[in-house]
Amino acid sequence: MRFPIYRPRRLRQNPKLRALVRETELSAGDLVMPLFVREGSRIRKPISSMPGQFQLSVDELVKESERTAKLGVPAVILFGIPDKKDDKASGAYEARATFTQLQPAAHPEAYGLIIGGADLDGAGQKYTYFLIRQDGKFMIKRRAGDTTPTISDWTDHAAIRKADGSGKMSNTLAIEVGKDKVRFLVNGTEVSTADAAQVDTAGIAGLRINHNLNVHVEGLTVKAR
Q1: In the CATH hierarchy, which top-level class contains the domain 93-224?
Q2: What are the residue ranges spanned by the domains of the chain?
Q3: DSSP strand E in the chain: where?
């Protein structure tokens, strides 16, 4: 009588043999604890769909992290819970991506980030766009239907890396949206700022890349601040 009815257990006769041949050993040191953090203080709100998990204010988060470390779990992963959530990115957030132009274009075409997009396939489309181009200049404009109000016209800035010897240029663009101000950054350097009232911020975030360009994009993220 053979497998599966006959199952030899000679390699599981005692703990030493089992330890010798086991393939996987899981311990607390292999785990990462998920923790959920929100604004406020002295808050420990149970998450009904995840028994044993809580939304924690920062002071409670510190205590929970200390308890986790004492249990031998070496790491935590944090999930931020905004005070107000919607599907229009209307709170404070950051959009970011790294753009690598792989070869020079015949004309200085532009590329970069958009935020606040709405009705993008309609006549009333609106969004704010933050673009750079190979000559080291940046521009910020709004699209409002058929009009494109200018926030900052084409401007030289030393923060923009121009093409190297191989013809490539790589720059990280970011838009930081706050309650009153919106900051525009290239490679971590602020190149412009605008009043939030001037900028479309509630809506879709994404990319804009003009024609006749060979551009690689990586690390596109939109996250709460």
Answers
A1: mainly beta
A2: 23-81, 93-224
A3: 32-38, 44-46, 54-56, 75-81, 93-101, 110-118, 126-133, 137-144, 150-156, 169-177, 181-186, 189-195, 204-209, 215-224
Quote the tokens at residue 121.
């396939």
- Residue 198 has a CB neighbour count (10 Å cut-off) of 14
Dump pLDDT digits (tens) for 176-209: 998 889 999 999 999 999 998 889 888 889 999 9
Model confidence over 84-141: pLDDT tens digits?
666 555 668 899 999 999 988 888 889 999 999 888 888 888 999 999 999 999 999 9
Secondary element (H or E) of residue 66: helix 58-70
Q: What pTM was computed for the model?
A: 0.62
